[in-house]
Design brief:
The chain has 84 residues and is α+β, with helices and mostly antiparallel strands. The chain contains 1 helix and 5 strands.
């Protein structure tokens, strides 16, 4: 029988693929969570960035890039609403 002394660690028997699988699954779930499409006109309201109207030009996880007339602001998708 194999004995493992207390001073050494046990060999890693778990495959390394599982954490990568979970990481990819979480990344896909975050990407799918944004209900807005690229090119859609929305209004972003944030106490720090203020209220801005623009077009969605980027999606990165839960962040959405909102292109205004002068520059791009990034909002959490929960701070956006569709323009009337």
């Amino acid at each position: 029988m194999l004995e493992i002394p207390a001073s050494t660690s046990a060999p890693d028997t778990q495959p390394r693929r599982m954490p990568a699988f979970f990481r990819e699954t979480i990344a896909r779930a975050r990407a799918l969570a944004v209900p807005y499409k690229l090119g859609e006109v929305v209004i972003g309201e944030d106490p720090f960035n203020g209220r801005r109207e623009g077009v969605i030009v980027a999606k990165n996880g839960t962040l959405v890039g909102l292109q205004t007339a002068s520059r791009t602001f990034f909002y959490d998708y929960r701070q956006l609403r569709r323009a009337d």
